[in-house]
Amino acid sequence: MINFKDPKDQVPSLLAVLGIVLLCGSIVGLFMNKKVPTGELVRKNNENRQQYIALKKRAEEELYAADQMVDKNLWVGKVSEITPTALAKVSRMVSDSKLNLVSFRPQKALEGAALLQIQYNLSVDGSYTNVATLVSRIENSDAKLAVNSIQYASAENDSDKVTATIGLVAFHDIVKAEKTTSTSQPTPNKTETKS
Question: In a 10 Å sphere around its CB, with 0-12 CB exposed, 13-18 middle and 19+ buried, how is residue 102 labelled?
Answer without folding.
Answer: middle
